[in-house]
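Render this sequence as a predicted structure.
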Amino acid sequence: MPKKYVKRLIPIEAIQYDGDNWKEISQWMHNYGFPCGRTKDRSIIIHTLEGEMLGRPGDYIIKGIRDEFYPCARAIFEESYEEYVD
């Protein structure tokens, strides 16, 4: 029988990609040793632990708990996260 689990409350860092802030996101990822690229349609190419993924304008780029990066669709991000103020 499956058990129910709740995701731990762990603050993460994220930047919403607006299609124009690629340099900001690229520098942020580069500071952690993660290169990224950009396609002709302004998507960001992110090298994740699972392989290459595309972040599109409107998506959030998340730095996970192991300093890994990955894109997250805006709707999913906004349903899953709220701003953390310490």
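Summary. The CA atoms of residues 79 and 85 lie 18 Å apart. The beta strands are 13-16, 36-38, 44-48, 51-55, 60-63, 69-72.
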